[in-house]
């Protein structure tokens, strides 16, 4: 039986109340997130926006979604626009009123990214407006189950929206999946109808707090319980899950029990020691993340090829963990210790791929460059731990 738990607790950072939420495997955290307790994130919010500028040379528009706040809207990625003003064509022009969703939050100096491909997500399925087709989580491996899901949802396939079946649907009852799908479709119809009676800059849907949304994303059976020491948080999570327990030990606060401060300090440190004596240096820049692997204390008196393989293999496992823990994203370049033996190199890359395949955020291993650097990309969804602090 698993010992994994979802931990949610408040802590103070330089006078600001923050919420820490993470997945713990009984020994350590394997996923960590932090948000402002008075969260002002706009990620996932749905707005009525007004097109402020069209920029042809980069094929995009800038849409004002709140008074004085604009977001980047790619014309390449958004082929169909959800107009609220009368139009004779699908061509977007300055002044148009459209429904948009925040796809990526504000990060440092970058504007938020907006989309017309509206996403509504439940526990078992997600609906994407302006896309089409049926997708099933790659983590559902059983072919019979995949075929059964396709048969169940076949009649709901439409040109107006796509359906994504989430991992939690693997063992779900058919009626639960269908009920949730219909709820999401009804929700979109309500949002769309309401938009015609509202003005520009209206928030049509505000997303739940991040720590609450994460509850829906936890796979059935992945954890044994959810633990929080905050009464208000407990009441909110309890509406979603029967696994929630209120922690009330005043002598040993929850953040101390799980060493939250120590965990965050480690994630803000550029240097990560490996058990073998080697270490990693993790550097975040505006353009990319660079991770350097060093033999450190390990190589002395060891067979060189075997020593390098051991350090690189351990590094591959730790790097995959750190990418998820720190929420690193975008372009990630990994400089392993040089391995002349191509079979060893293949082993290390395969070990890395095995771990990142378990990451809920889309991560692609591109491969080794001619310079022996491993190229990786990870979808940018929100700020990394270091960007938050």
What does this structure look like?
This protein has 389 residues and is an alpha+beta fold. The chain folds into 4 domains: 5-38 and 209-261, Nucleotidyltransferase, domain 5 (2-Layer Sandwich), CATH 3.30.420; 46-115, Beta Barrel (OB fold (Dihydrolipoamide Acetyltransferase, E2P)); 119-205, Ribosomal Protein S5, domain 2 (2-Layer Sandwich), CATH 3.30.230; 269-388, no CATH class. Helix content is 26%, strand content 31%. It has a 6-stranded mixed sheet, covered by helices on one side. Helix 7 (304-326) runs parallel beside helix 8 (342-356). 28% of the residues are buried. The model has no long low-confidence stretch (mean pLDDT 92).
Question: Which terms summarize this structure?
Answer:
single chain, 389 residues, alpha+beta, Nucleotidyltransferase, domain 5, OB fold (Dihydrolipoamide Acetyltransferase, E2P), Ribosomal Protein S5, domain 2, 4 domains, 6-stranded mixed β-sheet, 5-stranded mixed β-sheet, 9 helices, 26% helix, 31% strand, globular
């Amino acid at each position: 039986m698993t010992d994994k738990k979802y931990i949610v607790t408040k802590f103070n950072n330089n006078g600001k109340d923050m919420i820490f939420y993470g997945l713990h495997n009984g020994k350590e955290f394997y996923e960590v997130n932090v948000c402002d307790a008075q969260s002002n994130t706009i990620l996932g919010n749905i707005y009525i926006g007004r097109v402020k500028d069209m920029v042809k040379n980069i094929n995009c528009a800038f849409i004002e979604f709140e008074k004085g706040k604009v977001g980047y809207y790619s014309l390449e990625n958004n082929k169909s626009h959800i107009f609220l003003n009368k139009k004779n064509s699908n061509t977007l022009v300055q002044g148009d009123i459209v429904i948009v969703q925040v796809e990526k939050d504000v990060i440092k100096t970058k504007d938020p990214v907006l989309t017309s491909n509206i996403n509504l997500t439940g526990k078992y399925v997600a609906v994407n407006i302006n896309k089409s087709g049926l997708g099933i989580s790659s983590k559902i491996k059983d072919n019979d189950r995949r075929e059964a899901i396709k048969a169940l949802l076949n009649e709901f396939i439409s040109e107006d929206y796509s359906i994504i079946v989430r991992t939690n649907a693997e063992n779900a009852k058919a009626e639960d999946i269908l009920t949730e799908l219909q709820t999401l479709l009804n929700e979109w119809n309500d949002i769309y109808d309401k938009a015609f009676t509202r003005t520009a800059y209206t928030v049509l849907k505000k997303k739940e707090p991040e720590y609450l949304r994460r509850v829906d994303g936890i796979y059935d059976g992945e954890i044994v319980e959810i633990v929080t020491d905050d009464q208000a948080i407990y009441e909110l999570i309890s509406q979603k899950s029967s696994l929630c327990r209120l922690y009330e030990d005043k002598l040993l606060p929850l953040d101390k029990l799980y060493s939250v401060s120590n965990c965050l300090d480690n994630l803000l440190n550029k240097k990560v020691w490996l058990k073998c004596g080697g270490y990693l240096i993790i550097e975040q820049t505006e353009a990319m993340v660079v991770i350097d692997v060093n033999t450190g204390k390990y190589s002395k008196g060891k067979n060189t090829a075997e020593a390098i393989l051991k350090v690189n293999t351990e590094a591959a496992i730790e790097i995959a963990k750190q990418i998820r823990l720190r929420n690193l994203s975008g372009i990630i370049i990994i400089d392993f210790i040089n391995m002349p033996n191509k079979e060893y190199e293949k082993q290390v890359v395969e070990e890395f791929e095995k771990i990142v395949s378990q990451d809920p955020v889309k991560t692609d291993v591109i491969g080794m460059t001619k310079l022996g650097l491993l190229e990786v990309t990870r979808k940018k969804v929100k700020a990394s731990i270091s960007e938050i602090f």
